[in-house]
Amino acid sequence: MSAVLQIGRESGGDVVRVNLGPFRPYLITHPDHLQHVLRGNSANYRRDGVLWKPLHRLFGESVMADGPAWEESRRVLQPVFTAKNVEALAARMAEAAGEGIDELAAPARSGLPIDVPSAMARIVNRVVMRIFFGDKISMADAQRLAPAFDAVGTSVIFRYLLPFVPYRVPLPGDRAFGNAVRTIDDVVIPLVDRHKDKPGDGDDIVSVLCRAAGSAGGGPDAARWVRDNLVAMLATATETTAGALTWLWPLLQAHPEVAASLRQEIGHVVGNGPVRPAHLAALPYTKQVVQELLRLFPVGWLFPRMVVEPEVLGGVLLKKGETIVISPFITHRMEAFWERPEEFDPGRFSGRRSSGRHRYAYFPFGGGPHQCLGMHVFMLEAQLIIAGILSRFDLLSCTPEVATPQMGASLRPRQRVEITLRPLPRT
What we know:
The protein has helices spanning about 1-10, 30-40, 55-60, 65-75, 85-90, 90-100, 105-110, 115-130, 140-155, 155-160, 175-195, 205-215, 220-245, 250-255, 255-270, 285-295, 330, 350-355, 375-390, and strands at about 15, 25-30, 45, 115, 305, 310-315, 315-320, 325, 395-400, 405, 410-415, 420-425. Helix 6 crosses helix 19 (about 375-390), helix 8 packs across helix 13 and helix 16 (about 285-295) crosses helix 19 (about 375-390). Helices cover about 50% and strands about 10% of the residues.
């Protein structure tokens, strides 16, 4: 990862070919080129090719695919994730997040270390399962899904590094991937079977997908389409959100001035009572912390695309079938587009300092037609969780102070991240 990051920085935004042995994709980093690929001519750059194979084995013909399957999936799911609908659910999200945060009180009173990925997953799962899955997935099953998705994210590394090795040739991680998919299917397939013929009139994801499948005639293909989309939404709504929030605590430990400003704002606005959606408008610095967190550690750190028809981009001829690689992780850390890019500085997202920034210098949720459906959910949920935790607890310590990323389907720390909290006095 560090080598590819260095190549991106040295490119200065030019389209460059990355030599990964037998695999030589083009790296696209300039915001002008990114806007063209993700939005201007997105139909010419498909979610296809060797780097998509590992994920296709998990998500199938879903909203994470391309072509007709993606179009239908997005059409069905889009209404669930509009900003208006998400905001209407905000009060219930805040309540569920608060219940999840309650579980931190016991270890905080005892001074015991808290495993951050597990804690964030429990809180996020409580919110997502109640609000977006209608409590159709139990918390016990949600806890089974979290490590399975985590295993998927790490087990595909060798398939990314050796994309042309056929699947009949086993690689490290293949067995873990297969076991994880079986665990996921053990939860999701019975869920589909229970609701596909009686979806009800709810507005949760399970009901919405099952109704759409039924109106299309049902059958095995329809059931598989529901399964694929449920897995895609579970992964993006839970594992990736919890993973992103894991990075916050080492950053706050390493930057006490940011932690102090964040705590001051939350204490002034929220006090030590429950966080409500109405508080968020008065928490601009909290939002900036989330934005800067996603700049340094975007969940979707790598977006591969396959060229459909030859096209010249940045003076380079991209031939049909070539793979291009887009990486928010790289573009967000390039001095060509960011001042002091390695520094954790939430203030760079203030209105004054954001003015004039290229739309595609910052794209943690992608862009264009394939922009992440859940971006409004993430921003709202992340702010509610961060404000909820820091309104009730003081961060005493975090290990490690500096976490380093490990390559996988999503970014995650190489090290185990633990925090120690202390309850704030109630007033």
